[in-house]
């Protein structure tokens, strides 16, 4: 089904040198000290991820499928297929894969600074390594990676699981968008695909959560939530009491309308941020997370707005109706008072493509 390859479209801007190969199970056992518990970096829906070192000294992260099943094998094939065809400076590169017997493993470059989640809310959060410049670079870099998937990859790709644990940070604190296992390839001419709802609550666009309509604008919504998280240090859903929850958008919109940016900024920044940039990030984020998909910008527009390239478009953004008075009730996606026992959705629906 697969062979070692060099991807395609090598001439396109922003791409890295594509090279990947098939690894033997023996080589991966040697690299990870037999998948030693001490080498374990984390665990996701697919299985565990281990740190390893190859004979040439290079460091790798090996994702090992938990339990073999036809469904898991499909997800494995989707991730390998997608990773093999995309190469961009802000998308996590595939080093290779291994499929021997019932073992399925994916090999990536190791990201020494782990995920955005670990910096914002996890093991790195106390170190406060994410100053404002780094946050801005991560915001722009991850937007460029997603814009590449939406607008330059052929066929176009919807990620479907944009969230803080899927944005990894390399040694230069540049963003690497990861975890393409849920991604969907969009055939030419299709506006969206109706599909199984998969993703993480708090990041799910309302039309996707309710109707299973996946399109690029669902990723834009999730990216908006991620931007708010990056700027404010708040989680997508905050627990206010045992029965009440508040989404980060419900919290941020009234503050943005009142231009209270000092209250929106992550307290860990200690007031050290560029106010015009923070303002930009918050306005872009809230427009991305609009409940009506047609009001959301494209990822190409998001990149342009975050970079502040067009003063005219920034002025338009700031004067958007959304920021005139608090629109919280209309804007609300309905999750604020929801009672969820799990923050992960996996609901089967018929898969059908919808072209217009
Ligand atoms: N290339 C990598 N370099 C460093 N750490 C990694 C790498 N890939 C994954 N990790 C770590 O392993 C953890 C598990 O990753 P994985 O993608 O399997 O799951 P997840 O994104 O946390 O959850 P889910 O599968 O539900 O999306 C991540 O949170 C991350 O910290």
Automatic annotation (TrEMBL):
Report residue spans for region: Disordered.
318-356
Keywords of the record = ATP-binding, Kinase, Nucleotide-binding, Serine/threonine-protein kinase, Transferase
| GO terms assigned for molecular function | ATP binding; protein serine/threonine kinase activity
A Pfam family cross-referenced in the UniProt record is: PK_Tyr_Ser-Thr
Comp. bias (Basic and acidic residues): 346-356
Which segments constitute the Protein kinase domain? 35-314
Gene3D superfamilies membership = Phosphorylase Kinase, domain 1 (3.30.200.20), Transferase(Phosphotransferase) domain 1 (1.10.510.10)
Q: Which residues bind ATP?
A: 63
Q: Does the keyword Transferase apply?
A: yes
Biased composition of type Polar residues is found at: 324-339
Q: Which domain of life is it from?
A: Eukaryota
Q: Which PROSITE patterns match?
A: PROTEIN_KINASE_ATP, PROTEIN_KINASE_DOM, PROTEIN_KINASE_ST
Q: Which InterPro entries is this protein grouped with?
A: Kinase-like_dom_sf (IPR011009), Prot_kinase_dom (IPR000719), Protein_kinase_ATP_BS (IPR017441), Ser-Thr/Tyr_kinase_cat_dom (IPR001245), Ser/Thr_kinase_AS (IPR008271)
The signal peptide annotation in the UniProt record is none
Family to which the UniProt record says this protein belongs: Belongs to the protein kinase superfamily.
The record's section on PANTHER family has:
OS01G0750732 PROTEIN, PROTEIN KINASE DOMAIN-CONTAINING PROTEIN
Q: What is this protein called?
A: PTI1-like tyrosine-protein kinase
Recorded source organism is Prunus yedoensis var. nudiflora
